[in-house]
Design goal:
Blueprint lengths: L12 H4 L6 H17 L6 H8 L3 H13 L4 E5 L5 E5 L5 H12 L11
Antiparallel strand pairs: 1-2
């Protein structure tokens, strides 16, 4: 999903009512959750998320740490020097995570990644 197409986000009660999460982390959760529900995962890096939220990438990194600590996201790192972060919702099975990562790195399985 293109991040430009996100118009509405939904933040469930267990997230917006969370006492420890910073308010901006709750918004980030809603934003990433929309992408995860559409595509099954999110690979947006800190730079692109920071541009979308008009903040520094360190802020994004900190918010993601809060969300992981609250067990609202699972993350897997792959690629050269493990520099590609895949974000999944916590109810995503291991098999779906593997399939998403495999499809992302193999263009013949992912038409969006094919080179023309």
């Amino acid at each position: 999903m293109k991040k430009d197409k996100i118009q509405d986000i939904y933040i469930p009660k267990n997230v917006w009512g969370h006492r420890i999460l910073p308010p901006a982390a709750k918004l980030l959760y809603g934003y990433i959750a929309v992408i995860c529900k559409q595509d099954g995962f999110c690979v947006a890096g800190n730079d692109s998320l920071a541009k979308s939220f008009h903040v520094h990438k360190i802020s994004i990194s900190n918010w993601i740490k809060y969300l992981k600590k609250a067990r609202l996201f699972k993350t897997k790192y792959r690629g050269y020097n493990r520099n590609t972060r895949f974000i999944f919702l916590p109810n995503t099975s291991i098999n779906k995570m593997r399939k998403a990562i495999f499809g992302y790195y193999h263009p013949h399985n992912n038409p969006d990644k094919q080179k023309h």
